[in-house]
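testing teh design pipeline on a random one, pls ignore if ur not involved
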């Protein structure tokens, strides 16, 4: 008598068959393609120090602040939390964030940040199957380029038919804007694609764009609510991608 498959392994099989037949894969960047948030946190602190500010974000504070998508928005949220008598202006925040982005690029060169386990294999297998690839992220195009030129070579962007960064849409995740923009670039409906994400904000954004979502847990979002995901894995090596 064959035992009914346990729900989890059914889901793995379901996601695997969806992975094989979807027309495009849409990747989140931070926490999904690579575990970048520790470098982002260090870059924020380096920028605060260079600006002569006494702000330092430890991991616990940063975990809370990561509920706010977007580095500029995160700085503003922290400033408001502090109720400082002279809140930072938008110009101050933009300037600080520019320094942070430069620090992030420096840290990537100094410390490196490899793709997460299974990411490269999935990208190669998808390309070999003729599937199309896209990126839908909150971070900036400069950060995507700094990360992926190191991880995938200087022509990395040739692999992705649509690349949508946070500052190129009016609303960041959990709004669906970056995913809707990626679907429009692919000229595909959401259900024909598969999104790979690491955070509740990203999951909510993709689901609103009617894209099925595979979640790979990352350092800062271990206890997020991923109920709406098709499947939640620790990383992509748990899913045969070939
Ligand atoms: C994660 C984010 C970003 C990064 C920092 O983006 O929310 O804000 O934390 O990058 P993803 P910026 O959607 O790829 O997970 O400072 O450039 O915003
Ligand atoms: Mg992410």
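output:
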């Amino acid at each position: 008598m064959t035992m009914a498959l346990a729900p989890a392994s059914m889901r793995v099989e379901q996601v695997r068959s969806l992975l094989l037949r979807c027309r495009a894969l849409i990747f989140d960047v931070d926490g999904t393609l690579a575990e970048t948030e520790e470098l982002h946190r260090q870059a924020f602190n380096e920028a605060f120090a260079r600006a002569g500010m006494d702000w330092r974000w430890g991991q616990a504070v940063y975990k809370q602040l990561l509920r706010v998508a977007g580095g500029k928005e995160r700085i503003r949220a922290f400033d408001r939390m502090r109720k400082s008598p002279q809140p930072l202006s938008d110009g101050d925040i933009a300037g600080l964030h520019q320094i942070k982005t430069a620090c992030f690029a420096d840290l990537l060169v100094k410390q490196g940040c490899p793709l997460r386990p299974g990411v490269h294999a999935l990208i190669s297998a998808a390309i070999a199957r003729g599937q199309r690839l896209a990126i839908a992220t909150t971070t900036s195009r400069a950060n995507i380029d700094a990360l992926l030129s190191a991880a995938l070579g200087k022509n990395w962007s040739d692999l992705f038919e649509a690349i949508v960064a946070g500052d190129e849409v009016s609303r960041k995740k959990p709004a669906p804007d970056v995913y809707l923009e990626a679907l429009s670039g692919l000229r595909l409906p959401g259900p024909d694609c598969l999104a790979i994400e690491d955070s509740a904000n990203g999951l909510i954004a993709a689901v609103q764009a009617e894209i099925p979502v595979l979640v790979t847990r990352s350092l800062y979002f271990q206890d997020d609510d991923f109920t709406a995901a098709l499947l939640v894995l620790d990383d992509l090596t748990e899913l045969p991608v070939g």
